[in-house]
Amino acid sequence: MNAAPASTPDIAINVEGLSKSFGGREVVHDLSMQVKRGSIYGFLGPNGSGKTTTIRMLCGLLTPDAGEGTCLGYDIRRDADKIKRQVGYMTQRFSLYQDLSVRENLEFVARLYGLRDARGAAREMIQRIGLNGREEQLAGELSGGWKQRLALGACTLPNPRLLLLDEPTAGVDPKARRDFWNEIHALAAEGLTVLVSTHYMDEAERCHEIAYIAYGHLLAHGTVDEVIAKSALSTWTVSGDDLNGLAAELAGKPGIDMVAPFGTSLHVSGRDKSALEATIAPYRDKSGWRWEASEPSLEDVFIDLMNRSKDNFQ
Amino acid sequence: MSATDTVHAAGEAREPSFGFWRRSYAMLVKEFIQLRRDRVSFAMIVMIPVMQLLLFGYAINTTPRHLPTAVLIQEDSDLARSVLKALENTSYFRFTREVHSVAEFDDLLQSGKVLFGVEIPRGFERAVRRGDRPALLVAADATDPVAAGSALGALGMVMQTALAHDLHIGDPPAMPFEIRAHARYNPAAESRLNIVPGLVGTILTMTMLIFTALSVTREVERGTMENLLSMPIKPVEVMFGKIIPYVIVGFIQASLIVSIGVLLFGVPILGSVLLLAALTTLFITTNLSIGYTFSTLVQNQLQAMQMSMMFFLPSILLSGFMFPFAGMPVWAQYLGEGLPLTHYIRIVRAIMLKGAEPSNLQYDTIALFVLMLVAMTIAVTRFRRTLD
After folding, report:
1. Min distance B382 CA to chain A CA atoms (Å)
2. pLDDT tens-digit profile of B168-227?
3. What residue stretch is flagged as signal peptide (chain A) (predicted)?
């Protein structure tokens, strides 16, 4: 039962051409992706881009309108029941029982999956996620960070082979986020495949591979370096006085696709390197600003992708 | 005093005039918008009163006529036929069965298939002609004093006029025979004997429906459904898990009501307590299944409550609890047969007041079973396994 079908030993998720519409609006369009076993796969994209819908199709909570594929070697259309046994899904909104205690929630999950010693399994998980001392507290009374740990504990309790985490760290403080990611890496090291959606760039950089999705279309995927390289974006970082004025002046000029303030500096990016350089040339000689050619950040790449996709799909 | 003064002085946002009304108005507008969005609730606002008024206005009849009656004719004579015709002409009785033995007669009354039994004894006509004033037996199921009362009350008067036209034995100063009416099961016509067993069913219907009607919508509204659906659990398993705890709750509730009925109101339990317990459990489960079905059909808790009300009102009014079942028009009786309370009220009255045996209650037991299975099937097929 635990043995993976022989056909796809290294691929945990392999889907092709997934599409889904709600009320005539296409939320996911012709999406194909492959996730290697044991890897942490980051799923990025703006709000409403179809990340949650895609995740729900992967674990059998939604039926795709078109497309096919396998999750852990099981057909996502036919074998939803088998997939559910081996997939831990952490929903975007806390969806355990608020009026049950930490222990009761975990025992419920353990029993539902038919673990032999539900009490023991729950006790162990409470230790693992560091909730000891709070096991009798009602889940609804936990703070955001603790709720998120409990949710992770609940979806890893039945020893799944794949974790689907939908914006697991939204609204969680940085320390808790770091602990959470350490845990994710520890789980992946044990052979678990993790698909995680997020808005945070630092989290994207902690993934082995990422995919960027906007308006239902998968726009880029690969390792962080690959995605940056493929973007063919040239970026200059400017520091100095009156950056707001400069930003307003540069925006919309030929060769300049994006101007974005980053703290005390400004990122000026364009896909056409020579046009960009021609436009900024007169400004580079002016005093008060320091220009530096730099690598685009992942965020630059994503915002550029988002701006471009807006043009294409809206 | 000074503290409030400074607050007033510092507060730039001046209290607008008619603040109370503006804020109430803002709330009112918001409520209307939300109400309009909830199409189902909006429809029910119109549907509930209109449907219920039409339904009950036509169905309810407190002086029931054409009540099902069994006849046991021990002699075939002109007089016997005249008497029966006169009885039917009173419009209170409708002869639905002809039986051939007293045992059969008792059985029909006990199972509630007929409300009256008329027996014309052997040698009736001859005794009348001899002036012996023989007895015409009219046995009534008086568990429901309303249903039996008006028919029995009118019996003597109406019969006399009817017979005067029909019989050719002169113009007798008095009835040529005696009508011996026998109000069975509740001879003193105490309405509480009838009401209390009925209440067992009515109270259980109300509480059981609400328990499960909210169960699925609550999971959806609290967001726990998404998590539940992502786990390997089947719709049948969800249903049983949600129903069974309340079977126990319902059983405790039923025991409480029955105990109070017996101890405080002096209602007897003539039949088997075990049988009553078993069939009450069946009734509880049927109601819970129906409530659970509602829960899978509606979108939110308000709709679930409205749907329960839509079901509860006819249950009270069309089940024979408040008004005699046999007095309703046929279409309303068919409707009533679809309500578990109708069958349970027959069962509970029969066991408590008539000492009925399982063999008397076969039909109603099967009906409860069928209703339960239908509800469960709808619930399981309607339960959405995905979020589509």
Report:
1. 16
2. 555 555 667 778 888 888 877 777 888 899 999 999 999 999 999 998 899 999 999 999
3. none
Give contacts of A 33-72 with B, CB under 8 A. 56, 59-63
List CB contacts (< 8 A) between B387 and chain A.
56, 61-62
Does the ipTM exceed 0.90? Answer: no
Q: Domain extents for chain B?
A: 67-184, 191-382
pLDDT tens per residue across span A146-165 = 999 999 999 999 999 999 99
Does the distance separating the beta carbons of A61 and B229 come in below 8 Å? Answer: yes
The CATH code belonging to domain B67-184 is 3.40.1710.10
Is A93 within 8 Å of B226 when comparing Cβ atoms? yes
Fold for the domain defined by A234-295: Alpha-Beta Plaits (3.30.70)
DSSP B227-261: HHHTSS--HHHHHHHHHHHHHHHHHHHHHHHHHHH
pTM: 0.84
Q: For residue B234, give how far its alpha carbon lies from the nearest alpha carbon of chain A (Å).
A: 9
d(CA B95, CA B67): 8
Outline which parts of chain A fall under CATH 3.40.50.300: 36-56+88-222
Supply the angle between the helices B301-318 and B39-59 in degrees, to the nearest 10: 0
Q: Which fold has domain A36-56+88-222?
A: Rossmann fold (3.40.50)
Residue A138: name the closest of A107, A108, A103 by CA.
Answer: A103
